[in-house]
Design brief:
357 residues; GMP Synthetase, Chain A, domain 3; 6-stranded antiparallel beta barrel; 8 helices; Baseplate_J-like_C; Barrel_Baseplate_J-like
Length: 357
């Protein structure tokens, strides 16, 4: 049975009854008596001990532990918290004549985010690509293709405006909920020399990756397929730079806890790819049909669809149950879809448009 600490009022009543049973004729329940004061004081001490026991009982299991104790569990199991990372990528810079763009040259995005070049570039007249990295870590430095950037310090023969090719890989420090989830995955699926769950665990160790799936023998014997998404980004599906970043990590990386090389097994052909969205549009009659209940239904459906693996079934009965479990919902009718929905091996479910009736 789970440990449940008695309440303070229960402990006071127990102490009062105990005193009265051991000292016949005394009244420990009457205010301003010595026996009553003793009962209250002893109950207070006992309550503190019970509270500490209740706290201790939560710390011994990772999914209930406080954040500081969770970090200790992670250290024991060899799981580390993903640090915030700086976005990196390339800019297209226009040069009027041959020149040197020195390492550390800085450009600024319209919203103030600053990037600097990572190496000297011997540029020639015309378009040149310059590798850059963000000065500050975090997701805000991820930049879509085509966004203009301004040169902060002038460089001879270099136009002030540059264009982003793609800058990505920036991520915030991992949340404690994500870390807790990865620790439970590590405990439930221990390392096995490169099986399906090893690849998924490795992919989840890459900053920005929130969900990952391994497809054993994806293109026959000796091949391994890995798909992943980045739920914290506006577009959760990875681009070419993200795919290369994850593939490099899966190919081989140093475990910072053991200082040993980990990665794909020798001889395996690794195929890292983006999943394809299997969009589910719904038509729902909802009661009460308010914004609060609609938001709750959307949140529930999103959680349900994200819990499904590629190639699985989205059961109509589970969709109905998910809607029914939304806080504030009284009644609903699902007009569309009308049957269970199947995703292919490389497809993941994504919540589409909801028509409210």
């Amino acid at each position: 049975m789970p440990y449940k600490a008695p309440t303070l009022s229960t402990l006071i009543a127990r102490n009062q009854a105990d005193i009265e049973s051991r000292l016949p004729g005394t009244y420990a329940r009457t205010a301003f008596r010595t026996t009553s004061a003793i009962a209250y004081a002893n109950a207070g001490n006992a309550a503190a001990l019970h509270d500490h026991l209740a706290w201790t009982s939560r710390q011994v299991v990772p999914h209930l532990a406080d954040d500081d104790k969770l970090l200790e569990h992670c250290e024991f199991w060899g799981v580390w918290r993903k640090a915030a990372t700086n976005a990196s990528g390339t800019l297209t810079v226009i040069v009027s004549a041959d020149t040197l763009i020195p390492e550390g040259t800085r450009w600024q995005r319209p919203d103030g985010v600053v990037f600097e070049s990572t190496a000297d570039v011997h540029a020639v007249a015309g378009d040149n690509r310059v590798s850059v990295t963000a000065i500050e870590a975090g997701r805000k430095s991820n930049t879509a293709e085509g966004v203009p950037l301004e040169l902060i310090s002038p460089v001879v023969n270099v136009q002030t405006q540059a264009r982003c090719q793609y800058i990505g890989g920036g991520a915030e420090q991992e949340s404690m909920d994500s870390l807790r989830s990865r620790l439970l995955f590590r405990v439930q699926y221990p390392p096995s020399g490169g099986n399906q769950y090893d690849y998924e665990r490795w992919a989840l160790e890459v900053p920005g990756v929130t969900r990952a799936w391994c497809l054993p023998r994806y293109r026959g014997h000796g091949t391994v397929g890995v798909m992943f998404v980045m739920d914290e980004e506006p577009d959760i599906f990875p681009g070419p730079a993200d795919l290369n970043r994850v593939k490099d990590y899966l190919t081989g990386h140093i475990n910072p806890v053991t200082n040993q090389v980990e990665g794909k097994t020798t001889g395996a052909e690794l195929i890292v790819m983006s999943p394809i969205a299997k969009i589910i549009n719904l038509s729902i009659r909802l009661s009460p049909n308010t914004e609060e209940v609609r938001s709750a239904v959307k949140a529930n459906l999103k959680i349900y669809l994200e819990s499904l693996r590629p190639g699985s079934l989205a059961f109509l009965s589970e969709i109905r149950a998910t809607i029914s479990n939304a806080p504030g919902e009284i009644d609903n009718t699902v007009f569309s879809p009308t049957t269970d929905i199947h995703a292919k091996e490389h497809e993941i479910f994504v919540l589409g448009e909801i028509t409210w009736r």
